[in-house]
Design brief:
3 domains; mainly alpha; Dna Ligase, domain 1; two-stranded antiparallel sheet
C-alpha cells in the first residue's frame, strides 16, 4: 500500500515537473536569447515558416511550435511580411507575431535591368516619384567600399550596383532605404574573395562590374566563355575594341539581332566599337553568375562569339572561322 502511494506521488511529481518544464520551455525561459527580423515570403505555409524559425535558432522544437499553431487555429492566417522575433518570447507570443507581420511589398529586379527600368519599377511599386530615386542614385550617401570616385558622376552613378533579386520591402520605406537595401545585397554577393581576385587580375571593382554587366547582356548561357572572349581581347594588342553589341544597344535603346553601320558608329563613350577598352561604367545590373563569370573566365583562345537560335553561342579563334560559322 505504501509502495503504491509512493509510486503515485512520484508519477504526480514527475507530471507536475514535466508540465512545469514544458510551460517554461514554450514560454522561452530556458531558451538562449536570439533576436532576429524574420521576413515571411508571400504564400509561405506554416510548416515553411516554422522551419525558418528553427533554422534561425528562434525555437527549439518544430513539433511544439506546430502544436501551438494548430491549437490557436492560425495555420492559414500567417501573414507575409517582416517582424522582429526573440527566442525569449516563447511559442505563443511568437505565434502572435506571425499573425501580425508588417505588410511588405514584393519587388523582383530581373538580371540585366538598367537603372531606368529599376527606377520605373520602384516608383510604381511604392508610389514614390522617380525623381527621388534618381536623386539618391546621383548623390545619395551610402557607406560601401565599392562606392568611390571610380563611379560615373550623375544620374547613372549606381548603374550595375542595384542588385537584381526578389525583395520583400516595407511599404513605408524611403527611396534612400530601398536603394540601400539593394546595395547591401550587392555588397553581400560581391564577396571578399571575389574582390581579392579582381585586384589580382589588375581590375578595379568598377571595371570588373562593368565587364560583368556586358556579359550579362550578351548571353544567357556560356557566360564563362563569353567572359574569356572579352578578357582575351582586353589582353591582346591586336584587338583594340571589345565590339560588344550590348554596349551599342545601351546607347540606342533599340534592341536588334544585327546592328547597322550607323548603329556601331553612334557617338557615345559607351560604344565599344569606336572606343577602346571598357566603357565608363556598367550597362545594366549583372546577376551573381555574370559577376562570377567576369572574375573567373574560362581558359580559351577565343576572340569571337555569336548567338545562335535557342540561346546557344558559337565561339571562334579567328575572324575567318567566325564568318564561316555565321553562314
Amino acid at each position: 500500500m505504501i509502495k503504491e502511494k509512493r509510486r503515485k506521488v512520484l508519477i504526480i511529481t514527475a507530471s507536475v515537473l514535466l508540465v512545469f518544464l514544458l510551460y517554461f520551455s514554450i514560454n522561452g525561459l530556458f531558451a538562449p536569447k536570439v533576436e532576429k527580423e524574420i521576413v515571411i515570403p508571400e504564400g509561405a505555409g506554416a510548416n515553411r515558416v516554422i522551419s525558418m524559425l528553427k533554422n534561425e535558432g528562434l525555437i527549439k522544437s518544430r513539433l511544439v511550435m506546430k502544436l501551438v499553431v494548430r491549437l490557436s487555429g492560425s495555420a492559414s492566417k500567417i501573414k507575409s511580411g517582416s517582424t522582429e522575433i526573440s527566442s525569449k518570447m516563447g511559442y505563443f507570443e511568437i505565434n502572435k507575431r506571425l499573425l501580425s507581420a508588417n505588410s511588405n511589398v514584393k519587388v523582383t529586379i530581373p538580371e540585366g535591368y538598367e537603372i531606368d527600368d529599376i527606377v520605373k519599377l520602384f516608383s510604381e511599386k511604392f508610389g514614390i516619384p522617380a525623381e527621388e530615386f534618381y536623386a539618391e542614385i546621383e548623390s545619395g550617401i551610402f557607406d560601401y567600399e565599392f562606392i568611390n570616385d571610380d563611379l560615373p558622376k550623375g544620374r547613372y552613378r549606381l548603374e550595375g550596383y542595384i542588385f537584381p533579386e526578389t525583395y520583400f520591402l516595407d511599404k513605408n520605406m524611403t527611396a534612400h532605404q530601398i536603394i540601400n537595401t539593394c546595395l547591401a545585397q550587392f555588397d553581400k554577393v560581391f564577396t571578399e574573395e571575389m574582390r581579392r581576385q579582381t585586384t589580382k587580375m589588375g581590375f578595379t571593382y568598377h571595371e570588373m562590374i562593368t565587364l560583368a554587366s556586358i556579359i550579362e547582356k550578351e548571353g544567357s548561357s556560356d557566360l564563362d566563355k563569353i567572359s574569356s572572349v572579352f578578357h582575351n581581347r582586353l589582353r591582346d594588342e591586336r584587338f583594340s575594341y571589345l565590339e560588344s553589341c550590348a554596349t551599342v544597344i545601351y546607347v540606342t535603346k533599340q534592341p536588334k539581332d544585327r546592328l547597322t553601320f550607323a548603329d556601331i558608329n553612334v557617338s557615345s563613350p559607351y560604344n565599344t566599337y569606336i572606343n577602346k577598352g571598357l566603357p565608363p561604367g556598367p550597362i545594366a545590373s549583372p546577376g551573381e553568375q555574370a559577376i562570377k563569370a567576369a572574375i573567373y573566365p574560362a581558359d580559351t583562345d577565343y576572340f569571337y562569339f555569336s548567338a545562335t537560335e535557342g540561346g546557344k553561342n558559337t565561339f571562334s579563334k579567328t575572324y575567318e572561322e567566325h564568318l564561316q560559322k555565321q553562314e
